[in-house]
């Protein structure tokens, strides 16, 4: 009876202070979990935004191309209207371009001017004349691409001048300044050097031919015994030996002794000691005169930056201003076409058998486990399999979209099978029961009733699998689809490249112009992936049946 008297009622228990504290802790834990989820989503969006923003910042300049408006006389003496392809278009374009610079003289200066224009411009003119043979004997105005360095200069990607000194050279100079041996005399930076005036190198009766420069360098190198003597020589001015010569001529008794002589520093170090930043012409350009010739084109309004259609309609090239994605896009299309034609019917057939017909036993369980495992196998393994089987054993052509599509179909099959089985399981059992109830066979039930209902989910899984295959690089590299292909493939048996491997090739190129084109190609690839996923979402929402 005492136990009954001391027991608390449910109302008293749930209203206790302890229970309120527990409830508050649970609510706080729920809030923390929500905040962690929101934080994770926010961080993912932030990282994705940084990625896309960096790609746009680097790659947007590749979507425009700097071109010059050039008047080209199509002289009949140089172009045969009956055989226009045989003309010397290099000479025709060169003469027309040089006419823009009448004040430039000398073969070297003219050759530097020629480098402003893309070396592939002659092919643009050739193709135009072949397509318009009636224009021979006339003067036409064409927009021709500039070479990559000047294209980058016009877009503001690279400067015309860069800092003249490297970090190591600046560190050497700072070491020298820290010794308090650098000063200004006669508005020029000089350094104090302890030079041993060797009588073997300087003869009293023949001072004009003494080895003054060698003596100055030997004394100067003593400041940099731990940093490399050869590099330190660049700090001295070319006329540093003249200062020692003047000192010896004024002090003949110094021969055979060690003297403290102040010799001038090189011009770049003189500037940095005075607080300036020494600059030099960007090594990508031949000379300041070449840059001046380019600037004159800008001043005259002959340059423009139209949309770079060549990025989509040209194939690969070793010249960045002419390189495009046409070959890679066509190669990816053929590769995905082969992949779809193999993996789509095979994946659906395998999923229907496993889901609708296969008995549940050890063999079917083993198959199901292996399919799930294959979906997680790294793509490079499929590339090795394709290299060994399709190329090594069957002898299919290397770099062909046929082989690439077969390799990607092996990788895509598990994804399609899993997605198809999930779509088939989602079909309500009443559909099957109703069809069987009206006398349909199992074959008719599946093809006429179950499969149409499951098709939106199947198509969604297929498109997502193909989108994943579109972005794969490793398997295509192993079968050689990173070859240098200058024209779009005409079929599935011709050598080709693909968008991911084209990106890989451009990223490995040393030319500065391929940096922006690599980012632009990634944006194009991302655009295709987004489009394919959008199609998958549309198909699912358009054909999905609501129950």
Summarize the model shown.
It contains 23 helices and eight strands. It is mainly alpha-helical and about 550 residues long.
Task: Write up what this structure looks like.
By secondary structure, the protein is mainly α. The protein folds into three domains: 67-159, no CATH class; 167-279, no CATH class; 320-543, MetI-like fold. The chain has 23 helices and eight strands. The strands form three sheets. It has a three-stranded antiparallel sheet with strand order 2-1-8, covered by helices on one side. Strands 4-5-6 form a three-stranded antiparallel sheet. Strand 4 and strand 5 (188-196) form a beta hairpin. Helix 3 crosses helix 23, helix 9 (212-221) packs across helix 11 and helix 19 runs antiparallel to helix 20 (442-470). The longest helix has 43 residues, at 17-59. It is extended. The mean pLDDT is 88.
């Amino acid at each position: 009876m005492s136990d009954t008297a001391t027991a608390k009622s449910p109302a008293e228990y749930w209203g206790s202070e302890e229970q309120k504290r527990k409830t508050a802790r649970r609510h706080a834990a729920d809030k923390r979990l929500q905040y962690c989820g929101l934080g994770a989503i926010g961080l993912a969006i932030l990282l994705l935004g940084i990625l896309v923003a960096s790609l746009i910042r680097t790659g947007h300049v590749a979507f425009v191309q700097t071109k010059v408006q050039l008047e080209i006389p199509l002289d009949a003496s140089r172009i045969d209207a009956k055989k226009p392809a045989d003309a010397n278009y290099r000479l025709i374009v060169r003469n027309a371009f040089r006419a823009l610079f009448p004040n430039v003289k000398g073969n070297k200066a003219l050759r530097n001017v020629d480098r402003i224009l893309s070396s592939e411009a002659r092919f643009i003119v050739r193709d135009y004349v072949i397509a318009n043979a009636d224009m021979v004997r006339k003067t036409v105005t064409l927009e021709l691409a500039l070479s990559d360095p000047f294209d980058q200069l016009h877009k503001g990607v690279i400067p015309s001048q860069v800092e003249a000194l490297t970090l190591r050279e600046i560190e050497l100079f700072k070491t020298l300044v820290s010794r308090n041996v650098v000063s200004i005399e006669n508005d020029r930076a000089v350094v104090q050097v302890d030079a041993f005036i060797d009588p073997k190198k300087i003869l009293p009766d023949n001072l004009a031919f003494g080895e003054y420069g060698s003596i100055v360098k030997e004394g100067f190198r003593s400041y940099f015994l731990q940093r490399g003597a050869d590099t330190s020589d660049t700090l001295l001015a070319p006329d540093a030996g003249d200062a020692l010569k003047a000192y010896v001529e004024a002090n003949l008794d110094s021969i055979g002794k060690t003297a403290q002589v102040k010799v001038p520093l090189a011009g770049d170090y003189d500037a940095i000691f005075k607080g300036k930043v020494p600059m030099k012409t960007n090594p990508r350009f031949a000379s300041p005169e070449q840059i001046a010739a380019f600037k004159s084109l800008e001043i005259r309004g002959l340059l423009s930056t139209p949309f770079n259609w060549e990025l989509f309609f040209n194939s690969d090239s070793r010249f960045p201003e002419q390189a495009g994605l046409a070959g890679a896009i066509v190669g990816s299309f053929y590769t995905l076409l082969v992949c779809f034609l193999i993996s789509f019917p095979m994946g659906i057939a395998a999923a229907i058998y496993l889901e609708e017909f296969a008995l549940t036993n050890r063999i079917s369980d083993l198959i199901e486990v292996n399919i799930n495992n294959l979906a997680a196998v790294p793509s490079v393994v499929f590339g090795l399999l394709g290299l060994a089987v399709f190329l090594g054993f069957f002898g299919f052509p290397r770099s062909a979209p046929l082989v690439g599509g077969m390799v990607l179909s092996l990788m895509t099959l598990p994804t399609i099978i899993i997605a198809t089985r999930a779509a088939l399981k989602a079909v309500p059992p009443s559909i099957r029961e109703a069809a069987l109830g009206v006398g349909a066979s199992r074959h008719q039930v599946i093809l006429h009733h179950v499969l149409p209902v499951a098709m939106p989910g199947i198509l969604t899984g297929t498109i997502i699998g193909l989108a994943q295959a579109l972005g794969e690089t490793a398997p295509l590299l192993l079968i050689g689809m990173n070859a240098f292909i200058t024209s779009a493939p005409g079929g599935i048996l011709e050598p080709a490249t693909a968008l991911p491997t084209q990106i890989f090739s451009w990223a490995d190129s040393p030319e500065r112009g391929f940096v922006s084109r690599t980012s632009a190609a990634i944006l194009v690839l991302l655009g295709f992936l987004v489009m394919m996923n959008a199609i998958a979402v549309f198909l699912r929402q358009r054909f999905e049946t609501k129950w």
